[in-house]
């Protein structure tokens, strides 16, 4: 695991979260994703050198690659590319929420939003809310789980949100 990533945790227990068992994502299947369950995982530290390295390769705008120009810009300092924020979110999601054996694919995401800038030394975590779990009508061995994923900084401010869909295998009947 990335040394900047702290192991996941389930926060704010209530009866909806207790229903999602097991809590270890590698053992989860479609049936374990209960609409209404909410989980938090993280944290991952944002590193200035990584912001610049990622942006140089994939989003070379001054606000992401040039600290001096960024200081003079509208954000008053260097900020991470939204795509970099998304990559850090994906690391937390893959390490903690998606099932290791039962995650089959994702047909896409809806409503991707970058709401606040992410800065060097921010600590990011994710909050995942299960919105829907729909069994497939054509393929009985799987279903689609739709979630709201929010990326929060150390102050609890939501800096990014999206609604992904994941195709998850069902438990075998054997």
Q: What does this molecule look like?
A:
By secondary structure, this protein is an alpha+beta fold. It has a domain at 15-46 and 97-169: Hotdog Thioesterase (Thiol Ester Dehydrase, Chain A), CATH 3.10.129.10. The chain has five helices and five strands. Strands 1-3-4-5-2 form a five-stranded antiparallel beta sheet, covered by helices on one side. A hairpin with a 6-residue loop joins strand 3 (123-135) and strand 4.
Q: Average pLDDT across residues?
A: 87
Please mark out the parts with pLDDT under 50 across 5 or more consecutive residues, or reply none: 1-22
Order of helices and strands: HEHHHHEEEE
Oligomer: single chain
State the CATH superfamily name of the domain at 15-46 and 97-169. Hotdog Thioesterase
- The CATH class of the domain at 15-46 and 97-169: Alpha Beta
Gap between N and C termini, in Å? Answer: 33 Å
Give the overall silhouette. Answer: elongated
Strand content: 25-35%
Beta-strand segment tally: 5
Radius of gyration: 18 Å
Query: From the coordinates shown, what is the CATH architecture of the domain at 15-46 and 97-169?
Result: Roll
What is the CATH topology descriptor of the domain at 15-46 and 97-169?
Thiol Ester Dehydrase, Chain A
Pairing-aware structural class of the strands and helices? Answer: alpha+beta
Q: Sheet with the most strands?
A: 5 strands, antiparallel
Task: Provide the helix percentage.
Answer: 10-25%
The helix tally amounts to: 5
Order of strands across the main sheet: 1-3-4-5-2
């Amino acid at each position: 695991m990335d040394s900047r990533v702290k192991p996941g945790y389930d926060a704010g227990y209530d009866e909806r979260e207790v229903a999602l068992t097991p809590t270890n994502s590698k053992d989860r299947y479609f049936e374990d994703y209960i609409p209404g369950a909410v989980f938090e995982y993280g944290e991952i530290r944002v590193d200035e050198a990584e912001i610049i390295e990622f942006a140089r390769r994939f989003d070379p705008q001054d606000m992401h690659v040039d600290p001096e120009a960024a200081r003079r810009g509208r954000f008053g300092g260097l900020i991470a590319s939204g795509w970099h924020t998304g990559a850090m979110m994906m690391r937390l999601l893959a390490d903690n929420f998606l099932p290791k054996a039962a995650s089959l694919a994702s047909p896409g995401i809806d409503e991707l939003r970058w709401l606040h800038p992410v800065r060097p030394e921010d600590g990011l975590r994710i909050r995942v809310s299960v919105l829907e779990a729909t069994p497939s009508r054509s393929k009985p061995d799987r279903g689609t789980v739709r979630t709201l994923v929010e990326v929060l900084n150390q102050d609890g401010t939501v800096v990014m949100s999206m609604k992904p869909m994941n195709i998850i295998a069902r438990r075998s009947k054997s």
